[in-house]
Amino acid sequence: MMWIKQVFLGLIGLASGAAISAGVFSFIISIGVVPRIIGKSRTAADIIAYENAVILGGVAGNLLSLFPIQAPLGIWLIVAFGLSAGVFTGCLAVALAEILNTFPIMFRRFGIKEGLSWLLFFMALGKALGALYFYAHHMQQM
């Protein structure tokens, strides 16, 4: 009798996880992060590789969040992963802001007409430095 409850809860968890991941992936696709990266890098011929990377990244992220796997990969791979995750998160944030027209409205309200690229650069730099500070000082306490 107890195993029926466990199987039922497992199926509910699996279905819920599939629904959430489908929502996240459709959100990423709908705001155009992956197509924008493909367009900027001029690598449209490798679209299958991008699709596979997104799927494998989602699956790997789910597995790593469920099962605490420890692998001695070295500091440089951790740095490369952090940099890649940060770039993707930044692209996601900028794409979402563009969809919502946040920056054009903000620039128009503040009367900013020149130096927009520098302003965006320093906003991104501040975000990156803040994240680096957080990870350097607060992750050791966890």
Structure description:
The chain contains six helices and no strands. The chain is mainly α and 142 residues long. The longest helix is centred in the first third of the chain and has 29 residues. The mean pLDDT is 77.
Strand and helix layout:
Blueprint: H1 2-30, H2 33-41, H3 47-66, H4 75-99, H5 102-110, H6 116-137
Distance separating the two termini:
40 Å
The counted number of beta strands is 0
As a whole number of angstroms, the C-alpha radius of gyration is 20 Å
How much of the sequence lies in strands comes to under 5%
Task: Determine the fraction of residues in helical runs and give it as a percent range.
Answer: over 70%
Provide a brief overview of the structure.
The protein is an all-alpha fold.
Q: Which tags fit this structure?
A:
142 residues; 6 helices; mainly alpha
